[in-house]
Amino acid sequence: xxxxxxxxxxxxxxxxxxxxxxxxxxxxxxxxxxxxxxxxxxxxxxxxxxxxxxxxxxxxxxxxxxxxxxxxxxxxxxxxxxxxxxxxxxxxxxxxxxxxxxxxxxxxxxxxxxxxxxxxxxxxxxxxxxxxxxxxxxxxxxxxxxxxxxxxxxxxxxxxxxxxxxxxxxxxxxxxxxxxxxxxxxxxxxxxxxxxxxxxxxxxxxxxxxxxxxxxxxxxxxxxxxxxxxxxxxxxxxxxxxxxxxxxxxxxxxxxxxxxxxxxxxxxxxxxxxxxxxxxxxxxxxxxxxxxxxxxxxxxxxxxxxxxxxxxxxxxxxxxxxxxxxxxxxxxxxxxxxxxxxxx
Length: 344
Fold this sequence. Notes:
alpha+beta, BirA Bifunctional Protein, domain 2, 2 domains, seven-stranded mixed β-sheet
């Protein structure tokens, strides 16, 4: 058995020396060192040997395996070095060529608009607040003066998860949560940007998922004139000092009185054109004075505290500001569209 192992070693080392490719070496490794190789066959026959010879043959077999494996690795390393050297001889590399340009991305237009609005309101003393997108029925509706069965719930087609859990239809729940955290004892001055969800058919002006930024100010002696001043400053900084605003009566369950804000048309300057449908005005957001019921449910004394709230869609603001005609452009990830607004 000893002679057989020595014979296999000599035979394998000779083949290794004669091998000219890495693939040949791989075949030699499998042939001699694999589970079905001759060395393994020798070891399987060790049971027939006397006890005192088994350790000797076992040690010799391991040494033979190791020497064959070392020879294969050494020859493989030599062949790979020779192949690399040959490749370098045959290939010309011009190190003076300029590198390939790396395309650098930029913020999404919606991200830029949201950050611009955040900076604007931070400059006016507002805080940024966030809340869960999976919301309870209480905070999404009931705490905002929309009890179960209220007809105004139909205005917001809701994705319900259970009877009490849903995908939030607006960011107003963040306002309710923030007021609750104050226990009706501290003023609130905040905006809450985030994603919202409604069962809507996607088209040029609607999406089942979109973004909102809602604002809230609650304190003593807050008046409608304060709301108008904040919105006037927002419109001036976002669209230009030459833009005028107007407030029209409207209805929202959580504000009373409620208004919608229009800005003068950029295209015609308020004279009337096809963009503003001849009115000279373009609707941009909804607002109003916080309903006393909402204040009371959050623990505020509505005789002492008052407040205003507003809500806007960053998509609509971006569309008006940059002349974009289809809300779906924001979500289809067309790089040609996105590149136009890297520096917007």
